[in-house]
Amino acid sequence: MTPVTSATITQGSPDYRDAGLVFPPGFTFGSATASYQVEGAFDEDGRGPSIWDTFSKTPGRVWNGDTGDVACDHYHRVDADLDLMKELGLGAYRFSIAWPRIMPTGTGEVNQAGIDFYSRLVDGLLERGILPVATLYHWDLPQALEDAGGWPVRATADAFERYAEVMGAALGDRVHTWTTLNEPWCSAYLGYGQGGHAPGRHEPAAALAAVHHLNLGHGRAVQALRATSTGDPDYSITLNFHVLRGVGDGAGEAMRRIDGLANRVFTHPLLKGEYPSDVVADTASVTDWSFVRDGDLTAIHQPIDVLGVNYYSTATVQLWDGVSPKQMNDGHKGAAGGTAWPGSDQLVEFVAQPGPYTEMGWNIAPEGLEELLLALKAEFPAQPLMVTENGAAFADVVADDGSVPDPERLDYLRRHFTAAHRALEQGVDLRGYFVWSLLDNFEWGYGYAKRFGIVRVDFDSLERTVKDSGRWYAELAKTGVLPA
């Protein structure tokens, strides 16, 4: 993406702590979760195992040995959670469907109990005036498909297309927005390159093959959903964008490379029908891209109604000279998901950024969200956008009166909503904003150590408590005016 200079960013309070900003009529205020992070019921009603069931039960993979076996028990508490969403005034709820709950082995027979659960969820949302935004894939690949090769093999995209057909026929009369994939960058690079996410593989060539088959799966799924949905849903994909800063003499080159691997390798085939030639050249020592077949780019390049934008922080990169691929594999970090791709004798590395930070160690930079939205508008001016995830983890403490004051999260959200509003004022076609997350939940490799929710979950009793940030957000959702 082309960087946006500070001169193009709307001036307001320099710290982005505005108040009283009015969002336009029809702007969607929502919140989001993911199936493996909240549902639990990992082996009930016909659900098969996913790669995250396997990964989380592998010693040393997840903090404290935590798993999503119970998580927030949303599967059994769905009605109460729906009432909570209504209490918060949510206009939309972004949830994901567990593929192994629908098709336990990823292919073959459909599990009707899984269909019934999500049908009840969608009906419950509509009864409460909340728009259902359904994500087909938020990382919980059926383990049987991984055993057959996972996303690096083409057959997984074939299976994903069939899964999309099933869900379109089941829920496409009622779902407001279909999202095919959540953050394919994470699925490809963290799952198959860096290894910190399921399935935990360290194979650079496989990671790039996964990039392509995820892109292909998206395009085929959009076509399948359109063919089977009998309502009038919108179609979408959600990407986590890298908003880059560069340091050192090679800053521009470092930013170009990571922008290619992290951003353009998805946006260009999805929205332009092509892979960036510089990315293909940069990765020539890793793969020859022979997994891209005739017709693939046409299949990937499907019109979408909205592009989902996930943003949490910026990233700073630098270029190192004289680092060999062997040295890279011996512990150097960087590039996509911490796995550094060699380009001749150079290596791109992520470097520490100035704070303040969230509990995840991510820097707090609301200006990055404004910059990102403006950059996307500049590159894809006709493409509507939606902030599909933004939020922060902090170490919340329950007060003596049982309340959960979380001033840091509230401040984080206020500043990022200010950034979104400034982008709106500059003509960005931004349709809505989903706070991550509705509930404290299983935070992947961090287990239950990190809390992102605007609602606290006691993981012993599973009791829900709306945090101060949740009450603040409810006021915003109900009035459309940014509270102080």
From TrEMBL:
Enzyme class, UniProt record, top EC level: hydrolase
Record-linked InterPro entries: GH, GH_1_N_CS, Glyco_hydro_1, Glyco_hydro_1_beta-glucosidase
GO function terms (MF aspect): beta-galactosidase activity
Reaction catalysis annotation: Hydrolysis of terminal, non-reducing beta-D-glucosyl residues with release of beta-D-glucose
The enzyme's E.C. designation: 3.2.1.21
Residues spanning the membrane: none
Record keywords: Carbohydrate metabolism, Cellulose degradation, Glycosidase, Hydrolase, Polysaccharide degradation
Domain of life the protein comes from: Bacteria
UniProt family annotation: Belongs to the glycosyl hydrolase 1 family.
NCBIfam families: BGL
Record protein name field: Beta-glucosidase
Organism: Microbacterium gallinarum
Lineage: Bacteria, Bacillati, Actinomycetota, Actinomycetes, Micrococcales
